[in-house]
Amino acid sequence: MGEMIKTINLRHSYPGPDGTEVVALEDISMTVNAGEFVAVIGANGSGKSTLAKHFNALLVPTGGECLVAGLSTTVSENVWPIRQKVGMVFQNPDNQIVAAVVEEDVAFGPENLGVPPAEIVARVAAALAAVGMEDYRHHGPHLLSGGQKQRVAIAGVLAMHPQCLVLDEPTAMLDPQGRGEVLATVARLNREEGITIIYITHFMEEAVTADRVVVLDAGRVAFSGPPAEVFCRVEALKALGLDAPLAAEVAVLLRAEGLAVPAAVITDAELAVALCP
Amino acid sequence: MSIVLKDVSYVYMPGTPYERAAVRDVSLTVAPGEFVGIIGHTGSGKSTLVQHMNGLLRPTKGVVEVDGVNLAAKGEAARLARRKVGMVFQYPEHQLFEETVFDDVAFGPRNLGLDGDAVEERVRMALDFVGLDFAAFAKRSPFRLSGGQMRRVAIAGVVALRPAYLILDEPSAGLDPRGRDEIFAEVSRLHAATGTAVVLISHNMEEVARLVGRLVVMHDGAVSLDGPPREVFRRREALQAAGVDVPGVTALLGRLAARGLDVDDTALTVAEAATAIAAAVRRRGVC
């Protein structure tokens, strides 16, 4: 597995309103391998979105380095190749949709890459099929639900054939059904198309499905690891202002009651198996 | 003395190809001091329904009364009745516009014609309720605050009007877990301390289950369930038909029961659930 994204002691600071330096990210060293699904969690202001913007060179480090497929984001000739490898999806679907018809919106990216028209048609069809929105290709995006709009936004990025998708709280503005649609779409792109996923979220039940979870606090990596290791640290998560998955929280209370519940229990299904073998 | 909706229906864009009935024959009463949760699938009519409660929308059919006054009537009485109902929209921070937090929160009270001292007292009271320190925040720009702080300033702007009924449409959407907990704690405190009736629309079943005294489930423009949260969340089939998730605790207990654990499934908090599970496992004898 190659390294899709690697940061080395990445630091990001900017001048604050009173002229002093505000440090948003400090000493971030992390690697995301090609094909991985990595969730990033952390409270508001912990630096999640700032970090995400480094992954496709919307921001460049003020210290250290960020490498995308081996290319440094600080070298200006690398910026376009990097942005073709890494696509971004943001929180509000309404801010990401530019056209009045779904298929034209999805075609916007490849058009700007100078892709030949016949191939654009094929890419748009494939991208809409990948997110399960092919039946809506002639619809107006404004008449879609939030979850559908967000899937169109993802299709718009997919049509540019990225190797990696960075999604910054893509479900924050959606209802439970829309959240489920988007997460299932992203998981399938990872599993079936091998697209590397970096998924920022406040919803712990979404992060549980990742291969690996990175927890940010005040601009630094607090801890990281497979979901089973990260989410059984209920107290540490709460101290950072985060939720623990319900099953992990219940497991802690059951252990306090003297029941033998394994440490790695973080989902309802695992708790059910542990309690009712 | 209540908000009373009598057979209210609302049709969007009547007479066009986009005509859609969003609310159908809803009769509902919100009594003073009540804490009512409204849940339902997107498009079930929740937001359309609550916008009738302060006259922002007029029913296509039916009547809305606040404390006995028909909101559709002309004149001073209806205007005063509408003012009794404060509305916090989704993403209320998008409505911030003033240069300082003080001026933003003061906008409503000033429009009520209050004098300077009374306005300041309202602003202090409102900021206190949303947990923002007056000295630290009054002079700051609302646009240089965190998302959670901006939202609290926006809520304070409505609280400063001292509504008898406060309606909040998804007040925690898009906030991180800490911000969400803070907003719900503040709304809860406001309700307890002032007796303001609260109508809360939320997709967050855990919070709704814990906070409200009464839960209304909307489905396809109509009220499908109405009762105490413990009773409503036991009606799993009706909830499923309405496309509403049960709280995570309820789902977990249901899964354990399905695997044969004889567990009491009425718990609504994590602690209650753990107690119920421990009791059931002890009764069974092995684990």
Question: Could you explain how this protein is built, in words?
Answer:
The complex is a heterodimer of chains A (277) and B (287). By secondary structure, chain A is an alpha/beta fold. Chain A has 11 helices and 10 strands. Chain A has a 6-stranded mixed β-sheet, sandwiched between helices. Chain A has a 4-stranded antiparallel β-sheet with strand order 2-1-4-5, with helices on one face. The longest helix of chain A has 18 residues, at 176-193. The radius of gyration of chain A is 20 Å and the shape is globular. Chain B is an alpha/beta fold and 287 residues long. A 6-stranded mixed β-sheet of chain B has the order 6-7-8-3-9-10. A 4-stranded antiparallel β-sheet of chain B has the order 2-1-4-5. In chain B, strand 7 (165-169), helix 7 (177-194) and strand 8 (197-201) form a beta-alpha-beta unit. The longest helix of chain B has 18 residues, at 177-194. The radius of gyration of chain B is 21 Å and the shape is globular. The N and C termini of chain B lie far apart (55 Å). The A-B interface holds A 17, 43-45, 91, 145-146, 169, 172-173, 175-178, 202, 205, 241-243, 246-247, 249-250, 253-254, 257-260, 268-269, 271-272, 275-276 and B 41-43, 144, 146-148, 173-179, 203, 243, 245, 248-249, 251-252, 255-256, 259-261, 270-271, 273-275, 277-278, 281, 287.
